[in-house]
Amino acid sequence: MPEFNVLHADATLLVLDKPAGLLSVPGKGEDKQDCLSGRVQQRFADARVVHRLDMATSGLLVMALGAAAQRSLNAAFASRQVHKRYVAVVAGLLAPPVTEWGFIDLPILLDWPNRPRRIIDPQGQPSCTCWRVLKHDPTGQTTRLELEPVTGRSHQLRVHLQALQHPILGDALYGTPASLVKANRLLLHATRLELTHPVSGQAMVFSSEPPF
After folding, report:
1. Considering the entire predicted model, what is its pTM?
2. For the chain, how are helix, strand and coil distributed in percent, rounded to 5?
3. Tens-place pLDDT, residues 76-103
């Protein structure tokens, strides 16, 4: 398993680059205890979880240092003051939206009998994603997208793109057999993170290039 990278560290927060295949937090079972938060806490004892990335997703993730910083960052995420962007490669040639950015507004519900899968359902939580086309690959019949989640539901980007019938390549939960075999990992990477430092008030922007 590749080690995580620390992109920024100060007395209040850490910005990390998580590899694909590493849990953000411990799961259930002895075989799911190795995770990013546990590894980070071996180096930064007071590191605390603020948000998560799916195990199969790589890219930028923030952790707080101390309870006060955790409360402040949790409030910033809850009030949507933290802005995240992702890059994904999806199956098929997805037509660009009429304007530069398209908007997916579809509620997401836990598919309880098939958890951890999520589904689109009118009874689900409101879920919104902005997206735009970066590049088409006519030969491979794929599309590279930039994604900005407005809400932060579990599996949101993956479920929304499946709903467009353009699943992310390598997605074992939401892909088709054809899209799954086109990549040896989920092609989803948290590439940009914008936030305000909870102590200094400084605007901070971090970036990480997708490894695909």
Report:
1. 0.95
2. 20, 35, 45
3. 999 999 999 999 999 999 999 999 999 9
